Prior knowledge:
Elements: E1 4-6, E2 22-29, H1 34-41, H2 46-53, H3 58-79, E3 88-90, E4 96-98, E5 107-114, E6 117-124, E7 128-134, H4 141-148, H5 151-159, H6 162-183, E8 194-197, E9 205-209, H7 213-216, E10 219-225, E11 230-237, E12 242-247
Parallel strand pairs: 1-10, 2-12
Antiparallel strand pairs: 2-6, 3-4, 5-6, 7-11, 8-9, 10-11
Helix pairs in contact: 1-3, 2-3
Amino acid sequence: MKQRTQLAWGNPPETLELSRNEVHIWGVQLNQRLPELELLERTLAYRERARAERFRFERDRVRFIAARGQLRMILGSYAGVDPCALEFTYGPLGKPSLSPSFNADALKFNLSHSGELALIAVTRDRALGVDVEEIRQLDDAEAIARQFFSPRENAVLRALPEPERLEAFFHCWTCKEAYVKATGDGLTCPTESFDVSFGREEPARLLSVGGNSEEASRWSLTLLTPASGYVGAVAVEGQDWSLTCWQWMQKT
């Protein structure tokens, strides 16, 4: 597969700088130790803590706190604001954004998590979406593809050698999810209505949206390999941007 970006699991610089033609991807570990988890939980707003308590399983509660807390820490670093003070607003379909009072620099962000890993994408003044998936065996992968992938995507998937299909399935899935999240359309955008490329010999790309190649050209896709056993993708409005990947290190 081409156009995959291996996350550089190094530490970021002391001072974060993010121009309008940059996208930063943060790798976030969700299996936090109790002291770090307690620090992250203290950054959450009341509604976020209440949501965490509604999870049935402790594992899911911990992962939510770790993801949401580290999101606040990262955004607070860019905005120069105490993470505890940040406020969010939500679009009609639930996509979060920073409250205007904390967002003079037009920060845009998106969060995705799977297994023990989360990815947080941040840029300025352009829409973006990110998705990450832990590669895992799916007995019904072909049925899922028939329901949610386009005819072209299904044909590409079936043409691959059997051992390569599972990873390719997740490559296609993350590309499609990243685009849907970037547009903020959620479940109102049928995933079979647009095409992405994900084959071995072609870079990730949005090919058409409802048959409209002009709309597709407004977006760019990049496949990510954030860690062993995981795949991801980021969809970004425009073509004139560069990607840098960091690992968030919790300061105690």
